Amino acid sequence: MADQSIHGMWSSRLMFVLAAAGSAVGLGNIWRFPYVAGENGGGAFVLVYLGCIALIGFPIVMAEIVLGREGRKSPINTMADLAKRSRRSTIWQAVGWMGAGTGFIILSVYSVIAGWVMAYVIRMASGDLAGADSGSAGAAFDGFTQDAGSVLGWHTLFMILTMFIVARGVGRGIEFAVKYLMPALFFLLLMLVGYSVVTTGPAFGEGLAFMFSFKFDQLTWAAVLLAMGQAFFTLSLGMGTMMTYGAYMPAGASIPGTAAMVAILDTTVAILAGIIIFPLVFANDLTGSTGPGLMFVTLPIAFGQMTGGQVFGTAFFVLVSFAAITSSISMIEPACAWLVEKTGFRRPMVAVILGVIAWVLGLGSALSFNLWSDVQLLGGLNFFESMDYLANNIMLPLGGMLIALFTGWMVDKSIVRQQMAVSEGGLLFFLWIVRVVAPAAVFVVFVMTLLG
Questions:
Q1: At what angle do helices 255-283 and 203-212 cross, to 10 degrees?
Q2: What's the distance, Cα to Cα, between the start and end of the chain in Å?
Q3: At what angle do helices 93-126 and 148-167 cross, to 10 degrees?
């Protein structure tokens, strides 16, 4: 095992935790998880979700880190090297290729939505949405997304920011960013929880009941599948991010302990987001929705009607912006690491090349809401929806399932034992999970998603 990656190393275990948590914490935690939990059994859904984190997400996080720290390279080269050392076919490096491609596709879509978030920081701070009702907030959002120039401008700005951070490298770029952005994110999160407690009155209890009361009658098999899918996707699995970040992880850090901290932080953010959002929604007699409707219409109405709403609404969108940027830099890093290894080009040049490619791909998503709104690709979906479906419903689950199978069945057991540094019983339990339980669960989610 190499002690160092040529790309640099995290200065400490804490920096790895912050970077990996930053990758996992994103838009899905804030605008999807709370509503999905509330509508599908509340506390019962949360229990199933936590079980899925333990049996699917957590083991695959560990599997990616094991591979990354042993290989100390990009996922593509790590998969090829470990396959050779374990006397397996190097075709397994295709999993690394698929992961890098998945990250690219997701980044191209993600950058467009993140651009909206940054635009709403300015809108909230300027008071444009103060006193907005459902009609004016909805019209403001529709007007913004239908303005191709505005959407492209914010998409461009977000991609430039992502390229700048990645170009500076692991230590001076990614670590420096998460060192300040992640603590700021948690500070803003706790501040907004306090704001929700103080200003929403009885609605605070309603919001908690919506998310956490045990509604077992609403916990259908479809809800269980949702919980499994959410647990898998929320941890940035299947695109090589955790493998890449694991390559920069100090040799002495415990993989099970570190992976557990990442999973706990990610889940905590999702739950706290719900504690912030739904009391605000109920306090203003609004109806919760999922996706863009919740983020860009419902919440601006809620903040616009409440004392201090302009300040705390701005803080909320700053919080989401921080979550977006810490995720975006992780999406481009696997491809960046490979291209540096392959070509020997300097990192700044590689970051710009990849950023421009992702920006160009993102043009299709940005224009899906205006000039290309009638263009259809997969099954009648527009460009934005097609890229989202392809990455999240097909490529990510396949990547995660194959990584688990590769770690459990293909990699030499001595490598896994050395990296995990657990008892023989603990090692056998981990191997059983990544060989059987996690792949089977992901396969079920994958097939059921394709079948609708």
A1: 130
A2: 44
A3: 120
**118, 119, 220, 378 from 321: Cα distances, Å:** 6, 10, 34, 30
Output b/e per residue, 64-75; b: 16+ Cβ within 10 A.
Answer: bbbbbbbbbbbb
Report the alpha-carbon distance of residue 333 to residue 206 in Å, rounded: 41
Q: What is the torsional sign of CA 105, 110, 113, 114?
A: negative
- What is the rounded CA–CA span in Å between residue 416 and residue 397? 22
- Quickly list DSSP for 82-134: HHHHTT--GGGHHHHHHHHHHHHHHHHHHHHHHHHHHHHHHHHHHTTTTT--H
Number of Cα atoms under 13 Å in the Cβ half of residue 278: 26
What is the per-residue pLDDT across 233-274, written as a single tens digit (0 to 9) for each? 778 788 899 999 999 999 889 999 999 999 999 999 989 988
- HSE, side-chain direction, 13 A CA sphere, residue 250: 12
Q: Which residues contact 123 (CB under 8 A, 6 or more apart)?
A: 129, 140, 300
Question: Which amino acid is present at 152?
Answer: L
315-327 as b/e: b if 16+ CB within 10 A: bbbbbbbbbbbbb
Q: What is the pLDDT of residues 387-446, one digit of tens each?
A: 988 887 788 888 999 999 999 999 999 999 999 999 999 999 999 999 999 999 888 878
Q: Are 361 and 368 in contact (CB under 8 A)?
A: no
Distance CA 414, CA 409 (A): 12
Neighbours of 297 (CB within 10 A): 21
Strands (E), 287-404: none
Evaluate if pTM is beyond 0.85: yes
d(C-alpha 359, C-alpha 33), whole Å: 27
* CB-CB contact of 76 with 247 (8 Å): no
Q: What are the structural domains of the chain? A: 13-450 (1.20.1740)
